[in-house]
Amino acid sequence: MNIKVLTDYEEMSICTAEFIIDFVQKKPDSLLCLAGGHTPLKTFDFLVEAVNKVQVDFSRCKFVSLDEWVGVGISVKGSCQETLNSSLFDRISIPKEHICFFNGLAENVEAECKRIDDFIKTNGKIDLIMLGIGLNGHLGFNEPNINPNLYSHVVELDDVTKEVSSKYFEEPVSTEKGISLGLKHIVDSDTIVLIADGVKKAEILKQTVEGEKTNKVPSSLLQDQPNVHLFLDKEAASLLEG
Predict the structure, then answer these.
(1) Given 68, 138, 158, 197, which residue is catalytic?
(2) Active site residue 136
(3) CB–CB of 64/152 below 8 Å?
(4) 143 catalytic, yes or no?
(5) Which of 68, 78, 164, 172 could tie 168 with a disulfide, CB 3.0–4.6 Å?
(6) Of residues 67, 117, 127, 235, which has the active-site annotation?
(7) In what order do the strands lie in the sheet with 67-69?
(8) Per-residue pLDDT tens for 79-113?
(9) Cα–Cα distance between 202 and 75 in angstroms, integer?
(10) Active-site residue identified among 85, 136, 185, 235
(11) Is residue 212 within 8 Å of residue 172, measured between CB atoms?
(12) Which is catalytic among the residues 68, 82, 112, 143?
C-alpha cells in the first residue's frame, strides 16, 4: 500500500486527479471504475478541467459501475449513476455505449450482476478503480463481514451505511440493499486508488492501514496490496503512526 498524505481535501483531490490523468495518458483505452459519493466530487472537477484544457482524453476509455442502491433509479438525484453522470460523464461527453452501470431498478438483480461481470470479462479486467472508504471500512457496498471471494453481488446494507445514506438524497428513499462489484473485482484490478478526507475518517483509516486484516473492516484487506495508492488529507491521516 502506497500512502500519500496531502494538506487538505483540495490538494488530495488534485493529486488523485493527476494520478488518474497520468494513468489514462499511458493507457488511453483503460477500463475505469470510479466511485460516486461526496469524496470524489472535487477530483471529478479537476478531471473535467483537464479535459477542457486538452490535458487528457477519456474518449477511448470505458467505465463500469462500482455500485448502486437497489430500488433506486437513475432519475433519483443522489443515485450512484446520477452522481457520476452529473459530476463527470455529462460534463466530458462520454459516449453512453462506453458506460456500463448497475440498474438499481432491475427486476432480476442476479442477472444484473452477471451482466456487469460479463462486461468486465469482455474488456479484460478493470485497469484502474477509485474507491472511497466508508466509515465502517466498506468499499463500494462490500460491507463489514463480506465474503472477500465474491464478484458482483447483492448485499444487505450495514446500519452505518444506511444511516449515512440520507446525506445523498433530497427525499427519503429505501436503502436496505445495494448491488456492488465484489472484493474480487477490486483485488483483481490492475491499479487501486483509495481516497479519504476529514477527521471523521481518521479512526477507520487507522484500522485500514495499521489494524488487523479482517473482513470486519473490508478496507483492511488491501493492506498488503502493492498496487494500492491511498490518498489522504492530514485530518484523515491524523491517527496514523509516523
Answers:
(1) 138
(2) yes
(3) no
(4) yes
(5) 78
(6) 67
(7) 67-69, 177-180, 153-156
(8) 899 999 999 999 998 999 999 999 999 999 999 99
(9) 34
(10) 136
(11) no
(12) 143
